[in-house]
Structure formats: C-alpha cells, structure tokens
Amino acid sequence: GQQLNQSPQSMFIQEGEDVSMNCTSSSIFNTWLWYKQDPGEGPVLLIALYKAGELTSNGRLTAQFGITRKDSFLNISASIPSDVGIYFCAGHLPYNQGGKLIFGQGTELSVKP
Amino acid sequence: SAVISQKPSRDICQRGTSLTIQCQVDSQVTMMFWYRQQPGQSLTLIATANQGSEATYESGFVIDKFPISRPNLTFSTLTVSNMSPEDSSIYLCSVDQGQDQPQHFGDGTRLSIL
Fold first, then answer.
1. Coil, helix or strand for A18?
2. B chain contacts of residue A42, beta-carbon cutoff 8 Å
3. Which residues have C-beta within 8 Å of that of residue B114, sequence separation ≥ 6?
4. A82 Cβ contact list (under 8 Å, min separation 6)
5. Tens of pLDDT, residues B52-89
6. Do residues A3 and A25 lie in contact, with contact meaning Cβ atoms separated by under 8 Å?
7. Could you give the C-alpha distances from A71 to A32, A44, A49, B26, in angstroms and in order?
8. Are the beta carbons of B42 and A105 separated by less than 8 Å?
9. Is residue A2's pLDDT more than 80?
10. By the CB < 8 Å criterion, does B105 face chain A?
C-alpha cells in the first residue's frame, strides 16, 4: 500500500531559526496537505497543495508540491515558541480511490526560547 | 470550513466494555472518516463512514470490532467494542466536503482502557 516517509522525526531548534521538513512517497498524489497537531487537539490544516510544482505560503510557512508529485516540503521561517507541535504531511487519494488521506510519520518540533 | 464536534473528548473504560464516539458536523458533508492515532504514532484510517450503507473498512479493521453508523450527512458514530488495553488511542473523525476541499478533523476522543 501507499506509504509516506516523513523526515526528520524530531527537531530541536532555537527560537528564530528556520525549519525544513519533507515527505516522499512511492506513489503519486494529486493533493498534498500539511497539518499541525497540538497536544490534546486534532490535526489542523496548514497548507493544501493541488498542482505539481506549486509553491504556497501561509504567513511564515511555505510548502511546495514536488514536480514528480511524489514529494513535498514544508518550511517554517523565524520559528517562535508556539510553533511547537507535531507536523504531519498527508497525501490525498483521488475520490475514485476512496478519497482518503495517507499520513507521514510526523515531525515533532521543539523550539527553545 | 465545517465545524466538527466529537464526544466524548476523553474516557477511561474497563476492559471488555464498549464505547460509542459521536461526530457531529455543522453542515452536510460528502465524506466522513474515522482514524486511529496510537500513542506517539501517526494517524491510520479505520474506515470511511458511508451515508445509508455499511462503512468501508481498511485492512486490519473489522466491523465487529469497530461498528460505524452514518444515518445522515452530518452525523456519524464509531463504537470500539470489547475493549482491551491495546485499544488505548486517540480516535479522530474527519470530514471531506468534496470538490478537492481538504479534510478537516475533530479534536479527537482520548480513550484509555484499564
């Protein structure tokens, strides 16, 4: 079945530093999504990517949909303490394949003030 | 995006009992899904809740263990049956409004089995 490989598994950074994490897949996805999960909450959508090669920003977040449609990265610039949490990439299968999400393993981000 | 309410938010249950989790959406949605998140792990799809018909289960999940209902386009339930400590997880409902809209999640139900 489809698998997403997300790296790194965890990051410990200083406030103000930039962060980069990525996901790769053995399968092609038409949509890539990036979510953040805080303790005690469900995943919250950060960025959705719909086109190969697409580069999308949301504030300090930037994500790209790889040209091969098998990978994506998320960058966070000038990190702040509230960026702490677990970040998940997810590939969205087409509706004729069930429309479900396949998740990466997650990247746990810790930010030292 | 749709507002998703899950109940209960958490529970502690005895081994061998069953618990039903509810997911209510404030608008009609095309698709509803149930995911499990084991401690320290990522999300794994349990099943797609189909309105008016039996749910579609993923490999490794069966209806007898995780019966699902979806009586209308705004509501679904997941039951975790005959619970054991291995069922201790976060159970999450998500909704897809179709037309390539991204899925959104409820806050989850944190389940601990003693």
1. coil
2. 4, 6, 92, 105-108
3. B12, B13, B14, B15, B85
4. none
5. 889 999 999 999 999 999 999 999 999 999 999 999 99
6. yes
7. 8, 20, 11, 34
8. yes
9. no
10. yes
